[in-house]
Amino acid sequence: MQYHPLGKSGIHASTIALGTWVLGGGTTWGDNPDDAESIRLIQTALDLGINLIDTAPVYGWGRSETVVGKALQGRREQALIATKCGLWWEDERGSFFADFDRRKMNRSLRPDTLQLEIENSLRRLATDYIDLYQTHWPAIPPDKTPVEDSMACLLKLQAQGKIREIGVCNVSLDELHEYLACGAIVSNQFRYSMLCRDAEQDILPFCAQHQLATLTYMSLEQGLLTGKVGMEREFRPDEFRSNEAWNPWFTPANRRSVLAMLAGWQDLLDKYTCTLSQLVIAWTAAQPGVTHVLCGTRTLSQLADNAGAADLELEAADVQRLRDDAVALGAPQ
Ligand SMILES: NC(=O)c1ccc[n+]([C@@H]2O[C@H](COP(=O)([O-])OP(=O)(O)OC[C@H]3O[C@@H](n4cnc5c(N)ncnc54)[C@H](OP(=O)(O)O)[C@@H]3O)[C@@H](O)[C@H]2O)c1
After folding, report:
1. Which of 18, 201, 262, 326 lies at a CB distance of 3.0 to 4.6 Å from 194, suitable for a disulfide?
2. Is 59 a residue of the active site?
3. What is the reported pTM?
């Protein structure tokens, strides 16, 4: 396994990180995971050298955090728990974000909800500290808490020892500046894959320049880039992968063109003796500014596959070829 500094924190976190959204189950991922299997998965990830485990309260409405907490009993020190705050569903505080999994969810970075969220997460994670506490989405009107107020609360939690480091997710460059003006943050988490390269415009170069760790998500395009989502695969209407607004790459026409692109890389799979997932993860990890690739992983075999990407170093010409092919696909239709 390769490790990168988590920003300027002095902490070293695995380049390949475990994403545990899918372990929360619910309608979002179209399946009901077996928690005992999920616990085994997380423990095996540690065995394979993956120490960065990303979760969030909203993943399964507490279920993902609870499973992570159970998996880490007796092994807490081996793991870096990255969880989040700012998506709130217990009352009306905050600003409406989405109806998600048949529940109403608000965005709230108010100090009063943050104080409740941290206690809920610590309880579910069965720990007395969180290694990386990330704001899940920026606050929005009408109940838009100023960044300085949210940061003051987070810095207080840090001073109390409840969190080691602060990170952000899904921020614009302007918002990133606002956070940095209020105190030390060490990481930024955002969507980034070879098919979704917006972050290359500003966020990735900025993070590299300012020594911020980057945690990329959906780098496997929710499984599409593993080549295992064929034309025959059907998703339930309420799954995220049926939601064209969320991920247009899953429509039949787009899926066909992605599968054709992947089929053209057989020579690379032979050359590196690797799988498509490994090729895609290695490509992502090789991009300037990327320090950590979050891989959502449902099964032990997917885990072994994804962890195997850690040892894969692609030649520069192949990195460029993969980029050229992805760029040639254009935007999703
Ligand atoms: N901060 C945010 O707003 C945000 C948003 C999204 C995600 N995230 C984080 O980022 C993590 C990663 O994103 P993601 O889970 O949405 O998407 P992802 O990592 O692109 O895809 C995960 C899915 O890909 C499939 N997969 C993974 N490895 C595979 C393999 N080796 N072979 C075949 N299929 C494989 C599985 O699909 P099946 O389920 O079909 O088996 C898995 O559920 C999340 O778990 C979460 O921790 C954060």
Report:
1. 326
2. yes
3. 0.96
